[in-house]
Amino acid sequence: MNLHAYVGLGSMSDAMYRFLSICSAIRLNIIISGGTGSGKTTLLNALSGGIDVGERVVTIEDAAELQLQQPHVLRMETRPAKMEGAGEVTQRHLVKNALRMRPDRIILGEIRGDEVVDMLSAMNTGHDGSMGTIHANTPRDAISRIENLVGMSAVNIGGASLRQQIASAVHVVVQIARQRDGKRRITQIDEVVGMEGGEIVLRTLFQFKPGPVDENGIITGEYVCTGIKPHFLTQAAYFGREAEMLASLET
Predict the structure, then answer these.
(1) Which residues, 6 or more positions from 8, have their beta carbon under 8 angstroms from its beta carbon?
(2) Cβ-based burial of 181 (10 A; exposed 0-12, middle 13-18, buried ≥19)
(3) What angle do CA 23, 206, 52 make, to 5 degrees?
(4) Which of 42, 79, 193, 247 would you call most buried, defined as having the most Cβ atoms within 10 angstroms of its Cβ?
């Protein structure tokens, strides 16, 4: 399913589609957050449609679900340990190996363990446009979960330094949810602004405001743009997409 199909399904507005398409094309680091069965991987696959055909992409997954259409895609999968306990290949092993392959982007099917350390490092050292999914119920929870996953790893990073690294690595958090009417909707798109008072600051750019349930049992509502101009407009300008991005935020 391509990204524009979400508009027809009522899962996002046209303005959100145009905004996310530009975010993917201008190489922003994007985290897709959501619960189990919310459609995170499907959305990640759709967002990958904005990747230029000339870019070298490495995907890392437990089981191959992503179906990227670009010609230069290297797919890597984890492997469980054998009966005797040897031979395990973890996501962290794969992320480390991926960095040696000089990829333009790294796409991580699901961030769930200590591979988050290397992923953040990659995002901070020139692998712009990297993407991944994470289990969380809000963009703020997604950032907190990243912090917790680093804290549970063997890497010892101070709280302030870790939050600074996350704030500089992640540009956008996209929240998707399977709501009580069974429909999957992108409920919020937040920008990671930076640090303030030792905490990571998020700003909501788009959100779904639910209304009453109609006669067919479908939640009514509207997708609202807050009109806030994100900090990464300079990156959009670098790619010649600033006017398009501003237009999507004014709809």
Answers:
(1) none
(2) middle
(3) 15
(4) 42
